[in-house]
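User: Can you predict the 3D structure for this chain?
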Amino acid sequence: MHPQFGQLMAQATALTRAGDLTGAMDAIATALHRGPASAAPSQQATDGVLDVIDVVARVVEDDAPMPAMRPAADGVAQFVSGRYDHRAGARDYRLFIPATRAEPPRALIVMLHGCTQNPDDFATGTRMNALGAEHHALVLYPAQTRQANAQGCWNWFKHNHQGRERGEPALLADMARHIAASHGVDPAHIYVAGLSAGGAMAAILAATHPDVFAAAGVHSGLPAGAARDLPGALAAMQGQGADGAGPRPRSSVPMIVFHGDADTTVHPSNGERVCQAHGGTAVSVEEQRGLEVGSRSCTRRLHKDAQGRVVMEQWRVHGAGHAWSGGDPAGSYADARGPDASAEMLRFFLQR
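Assistant: Here is the predicted structure, written as structure tokens:
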């Protein structure tokens, strides 16, 4: 990363607002220790947008081949590797399988990593496998490829990855259905959660596939339809440009949202916008301020429908930046000080 990363990203935003997309791409490329994007034909541009949408905290290499899937072992939890082929492309994945019991796993949790992360890193940072073991749930970590996105981001900001029948939403929903069916999971108990770009993709999946995902978790993410190109993505990440993104898909899928109010990568206002976009059946809000969870103060809002059921749970973590709350710092983008987002999300999912 360039030592003047923040300054270069601010310059990129200013150039984008001025309409100088090439200059903005040059600034981003320089910030990431590459030469200017205009100096040579870009191998990172697809559909006219540069695939760099998140701050690089620590690059975790995902180009090494994944270990081969191990045969099942009775009574032993496993973390196996696999590959799913789809008309929208093939993706590797990691899958946590809890120890064998007489009954099938009670749920499937799909976990979508952020930019520069990979499934193993994300599993470490979120500690979700330990919760999967405790609650007898499968945990699926799809892996984005660097061929599909140079920084390993899910392509939430591209118009061709925001609909039901094509692109990454179709691929991820079909992968989830396949894994659930293969392991005997009730299709009514499939859930999705993600961080940052992964959180934005989780919001898209809640909007495009409410028949697949019974609930969703968005951590430090953005609402579905927040952007359709690079300028829109940069603006949305800074909490701007909401009116210019066009019509946004809405969903009544129950959702839990986490966002740190000191997040300088994805502006905290995006947490509010996620709730506005996905809390369609909410008629009242109960706010709990000053919650002390871990070593951070939080505000939690419970959005309830006419029957008093919680359809949206919103956590604003005070003083937290762009990182998974309550996570293991051995993983990237993880903040151990806050409330345990993984535990709260799994609680929310299993209550549905």
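The chain is about 25% helix and 20% strand. The CA atoms of residues 70 and 196 lie 31 Å apart.
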